[in-house]
Structures are given as C-alpha cells and as structure tokens.
Request: fold
Amino acid sequence: MSKPFSGAVAAYIGLGSNLDDPIEQVRSARADCAAIPGVRELAFSSLYRSSPMGPQDQPDYINAVMAVATELEAAALLRHLQRIEKEHGRVRTQQRWGARTLDLDLLIYGEQGIDTVELTVPHPGLGQRAFVLYPLFEIAPELVVPGLGRIADLVVNCPLEGLKRID
Ligand code: PH2
Ligand code: MG
Ligand code: MG
Reply:
C-alpha cells in the first residue's frame, strides 16, 4: 500500500496535445505525471477533442485534466511538468498558442494564488476555456477555484464551443 503523503496539497494539471498522436501523448503523459516523486493521482477526466484556440491552421487538440495530491512545492511541480513536456518532444516556438506535442499546465495548486515570473496560478484563462473547465468539472464538480468561484458557475457561463468528450 502506498504511503499517504503528509501535508499534501490538491493540485490540478491541464493536459493538451495536437501533434504526433495526441491521444497517446496525453495517455502517456498521465502516467509520467503520476510517476513524479511526491505526486499521487487522485482523478483523471475523460479525453476531450476541440478545435484550436488561437491560430486556426493547426490540428484539433486533445485535452484532459488530472487531479493529484502532492508534497511538492508549486515551483518544483512545474519543473517536473516542463521536464515531461520536453521528454515528449515539445519544441518551444515563437508562435503564441501554436501546435505542440504536449502542454502541461499547472491549473490550480491548493488554495494558493501564485504570481511569479515562472508561474501564475490559477492558470490565466482557466475561467474562459471550455477545454479546461468541462474536464475539471467532470472530476471535481464541487471545486471552488481560488479567486474565480464555483466551478459549476464557471461552466454554465462557458459555451461548449464544439468541445466533444471522446471516451
Ligand atoms: N492550447 C493552446 C492553444 N490552443 N486549443 C485547444 N483547443 N486546446 C488547448 O489545449 C490549446 C489550444 C496553448 O496552450
Ligand atoms: Mg496551455
Ligand atoms: Mg502551457
């Protein structure tokens, strides 16, 4: 039996991919995130397909949200997420919101509001993005997003914009 974490924080990670077999990218990234030392998976949403936000000349995205319990500080967790993105062949380009093999966003970290050069939590845009809000609502319908309020209220105010659950 795995040892429970003392003083663990509940955090939510947004996963996204639209290159090189996006479904497989997201599935294997789930395992990679669960394998981070000091991280335990609590829940994982369905996979969702949506058209790209931002430049339209790129493939559709596959998105999901994962809930974890973690002993890591937010900055340490972020460094692991960036390592996993790199291991998935993520190439950082100049284009804002361009195509990517894997995007791992730290959406929420406990009750904390964080605003540093490296990290803004809750993730900016979380409150407006269907491909984040709907999977988050699926796994945490009672969640109150720090600074934004109840996930249930955020979802009803966010049009689906063609988001489709695919499993
Ligand atoms: N991520 C982006 C840019 N556009 N569009 C969708 N549908 N899903 C994403 O995850 C996404 C996007 C940059 O992070
Ligand atoms: Mg993102
Ligand atoms: Mg990102």
